[in-house]
Amino acid sequence: MSRRPALLAAATTALGLVAALAPVTAPAVAAPADTAQERGGVRYVAMGDSYSAASGVLPLDPTAPVQCLRSSLNYPHVIADELGARLTDVTCGAADTTDYRGSQYDDVPPQLDALSRRTRLVTMTIGGNDSSVFLNAILQCGAAGLSTVGQGSPCKDQYGDSFTDTIRTTTFPAIRQALRDVRRRAPKAEVAILGYPWIMPKRDGCFPQMPVATGDVPYLRTIQRVLNSAVKRAARATGSTYVNLNRASEGHDACQLPLTRWVEPVLAGTNPVIVHPNAFGEEQMARRTLKVLSR
């Protein structure tokens, strides 16, 4: 089955929402000369979606399918380099839990195929694209915010609990099943699943850089908190390791200054794929994961 990456669709839609958006370019960054794949070591498989693939961060991984928009600076590469691990990276932008068992694109095998009984470490972010719930929340709240020029809470008023209800009833069991499948394929591996770093601050926001109405900023935070809670619960239910980014990413949301934020905004960002982690964010996600794994 071939499909257009949801993250690119999101970027296109969000760009269309803001007519004044100037073109953004990502700076070229040299790839590390010595890669973990070349050194051998612990067998490490990186799975997951665009937050794992670091979609939008250059340079692209030359070994990855072009549709996946995988970066050679994603957090799995940082972890593998630090551990001296033998990395198999199957992360792919727009992936959801169905892409663990099935092919995301015609030439992209199911992610579970990368696992074996010899795998000793697995990391991932997954769940944010399931049912398009979090993607739709960001897009719908962005559109609603523009319609009120950043005033009120039009997204909350229109959608209420629909997003969080979907996460609790559909996304949570999907993540739990995905983790069970991973553990069956790699029974000797430590399996770590990361939460998603904060996209919005606790309150106020930064309209129009992030076109979310002031009253919808805490609404989006609640949706993301429920999503991260679902990830945590799924990890606990399957004996997996949960990497909590809530505290670590506080104050590093898309509304912060370029050298502080982990996630790029819609306007005036540095990544061509908006509302996704930058290279600094990916590095910090790796550092937090390494700290949790070392306990």
UniProtKB/TrEMBL annotation:
Residues 1-30 form the signal peptide. Pfam families: Lipase_GDSL_2. The active site is at S50 (nucleophile), H276. Disulfide bonds join C68-C92, C141-C155, C206-C255. Residues 46-282 form the SGNH hydrolase-type esterase domain. This is Lipase 2. GO terms for molecular function: triacylglycerol lipase activity. One of its GO terms (biological process) is triglyceride catabolic process. Its EC number is 3.1.1.3. InterPro entries: SEST-like, SGNH_hydro, SGNH_hydro_sf, TAT_signal. It is an enzyme of class 3 (hydrolase). Keywords: Disulfide bond, Hydrolase, Signal.
